[in-house]
Automatic annotation (TrEMBL):
Name of the protein described by the UniProt record: Uncharacterized conserved protein YggU, UPF0235/DUF167 family
InterPro entries (UniProt xref): DUF167, YggU-like_sf
Pfam families: DUF167
The family this protein is said to belong to: Belongs to the UPF0235 family.
Organism whose genome encodes this protein: Mycobacterium terramassiliense
GO CC entries: cytoplasm
Superkingdom field: Bacteria
SUPFAM superfamilies xrefs: YggU-like
HAMAP family in alphabetical order: UPF0235 (MF_00634)
Length: 94
């Protein structure tokens, strides 16, 4: 599993194994490429989902896919900002 960069007050960035607790992802809703998580060279995440950005369906799909990618229960991944944006921030509880 490739780990994304996390952002947190404790560490100023790092990996899942660090002390941080949030991650920023770029979302591509309505994508034929999805469901897919791409991790860039510097740890940035792009998440492709087939669901369209209607009634929170894409947000739910992104949350499920991110939790699966991080091998965590969905209840530990929470959308904290970007509900109507393609750039979203999630809180991840370990």
């Amino acid at each position: 599993v490739a780990f994304p960069k996390f952002i947190g007050a404790d560490s100023g960035g790092g990996s899942l194994r660090g002390m941080s607790d949030s991650v920023v992802v770029n979302v591509k809703p309505g994508s034929r490429k999805g469901p897919l998580v791409e991790v860039g060279d510097e740890g940035e995440l792009t998440i492709y989902v087939r669901e369209r950005a209607v009634d929170g369906k894409a947000n739910d799909a992104v949350t499920r896919l991110l939790a699966a990618h991080l091998e965590l229960p969905r209840s530990r991944v929470e959308l904290i900002s970007g509900a109507t944006s393609r750039v979203k921030r999630f809180r991840v509880s370990r």
